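Notebook B, p. 112. Complex prediction, attempt 2.
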Amino acid sequence: MSLSYPVANDHQLARLLQIGMVLEEVIEARAGKHYETLADEERDDVETLLEHAATESARHRGQLEALIDTLDADPVAYEEIEQLVAARYESDTDTDGVLYDQLANEETAYKFYDDLIEAIEGSNVEFGLPRSELLDTLREIRADEKTGVEDVTQLMETR
Amino acid sequence: MNTQRQYLKAVYLIQEGTDEPASTGAIADTVDVSPASANEMIGKLQDRGLADHEKYKGVSLTDEGIVRAREALETYCIIERFLVEVLEVEEESFRGEAEQLESVIDDTVADRLDTIIDRAQQCPDCFDAETDMCSLLRSDLPESEAAD
């Protein structure tokens, strides 16, 4: 199943951007939790990767928030998602588990943006923000997610 | 915007509720389409090995169809819970929004959203077809709304 239907209106677009924002917040918060739960000797390998994932997600979150603002919808507060992640977080006890989870995060985000871009391209609706700005931002984020998938895969292969 | 997922869910819930095959009319009513449109999708479900359609008796899901229908129902429950618990969408609109998003949210995305919501172990058996929502979700709604 995919986002095979065109985006119908500003409200649905804002909702989908909010979901994108939550996905980024989940990645950022889980990367933080993963780092906290790893033993010192396990941290070296993945520290840079997790730091990079968290920083990148925070940047994406800001970009999505700007789009959501333009649509006059409410952004989703990071602190709220961070608390929800913490409340339901089951720690992965080793680096492989952490890497697998990060890979799932990056792959899900990539697929989400890829489908969303397709659904916007397939829509004839005139949105409350410039279509070129919307698509440029989403394509840039999608490219980052693709690199993220490749980085995690590469690290998994070298282990 | 009616997907295979919505049809599987509809047939499953009708079958569960009546303990009989689902009639085309009942499926069309549930998905809110014409009987002709429902018939067309039922044919596709049959071609894909997800349902058996016996004339004058109705539609029954195959074992594979039941597995897929339960997955679809779980995804729907995740979306409903996410809308209520995380985005705090009000009772009047969360079901309509969930139906819209059901067609456009990938299963993998739903799985990630599932990591931050509070879904019961028995999902989707706690789904109430009549109210089109998880029966346990009602108690999570703000009191003024749950009292309706």
